[in-house]
Fold this sequence. Notes:
Blueprint: H1 7-23, H2 26-33, H3 41-49, H4 69-81, H5 88-102, H6 105-116, E1 122-125, H7 131-134, E2 155-159, E3 166-176, E4 183-190, E5 197-203, E6 211-216, E7 225-237, H8 246-282, E8 284-285, E9 288-289, H9 294-319, H10 324-345, H11 347-350, H12 357-371, H13 374-385
Parallel strand pairs: 1-4
Antiparallel strand pairs: 2-3, 3-7, 4-5, 5-7, 6-7, 8-9
Helix pairs in contact: 1-4, 4-8, 5-6, 5-8, 8-9, 8-10, 8-12, 9-10, 10-12, 10-13
Amino acid sequence: MDAAFTAEQDEIRRTLRELLAKRSGPGDVRSAVRTADGYDETLWRQLAQDLGLPGLALPQEYGGVGCGLAELAVACEETGRALLPSPLIATAALAAPLIAALGTEAQRTALLPRIAAGRLTATLAVPGGSLATALGLTGDPTGGAWAGGGRAGGIQARPVGGAEGWRLYGEAAQVLDGHSAGLLLVAAHTGGFPRSRTLLFLVRPDTAAGIVRTRRTSLDETRPLARIELRDTEAELLGADDTVDVVDALAPAGRGAAALLAAQAVGAAASALERTVEYVKTREQFGRAIGSFQAVKHRLADLYVRVQAARSAAYYAAWDPAAGGLALAQALEALRITTAEAVQLHGGIGFTWEHETHLYFKRAAADELLFGPVHRLRDRAAEQAGLFAPPHGQPSASSAFATPGPAGQVAV
């Protein structure tokens, strides 16, 4: 395995870093999140059309660039450094891989080129605030308990005659970029409780009736969440028939998404650390810069080692997505600790809500709520690896969390 970055990957990094340094500073981020879409649509079109960002990992036959997960991870790390508000994760990490894996040839041909060109954004909607469980990151998705299990609650699907396809009824409370996405991939149950199964459906909010999308107030405004209400909403089955095993497709997509999220978290942590290093060079105490104190140097050195270790884990996961869950756990932990230290080392100004350090601190807290927590990511990885097999007849440690309560960012 050659761990060195290629010339193409270095060029992706350099181009993105230069562009985002000009177009996505802390002031630009605060302005973008207050728009109706929650991101700078002009900048997104530039990233999509000029740099091919959402199509980096899509095949060339569907309008993509034809690169791999590693190139997309490089892009995600740079967007994480700038805390860029964009539909990149929802579209390229969650929706596009599922369409490519499960969609019919007609669906892939109709949707993927538009996604690659930036003309269509998409997201994955699962009920109950259970995105991490649905993706197999913090629990076993088999059986579909995270989607309602065929009982009351969740989202239910029923077939209708003729060319009308399917109708959906239910609610997904916390959907990433759900208020602005042009296409929703909705996980729903069908068949009733005895024979229930989870399927994925395509819902086009611009044309479908009976859908209400409400943007929610979230802890991290750079990752907007929405409540999706479906009331007898027209939907199209993703795939050729209703015998497809959705769980088998969600788990690989979850591992890839975890690698990309880990890279994004590493980018945010590295940026927070760099900003802190620059600040301690100028902040004076007792007549000298606090960065000259040995205790401060030790704290920053520890953070540097932690961030670099997380970075190595993230790129290993981009090469081997099976390690995605562990890489995400390490990256989220590094981001949480680094941003907490950044607030401390910025002193009084670091505690003011308006300071840019809090943008990174809120990203750390919200990401762990939405995609973690860290201990459950590690517990799931250990369970899959068989490291701590429980005594015969006793449940595993993670089984206590098989049906999690509402999770995710703080939302009202």
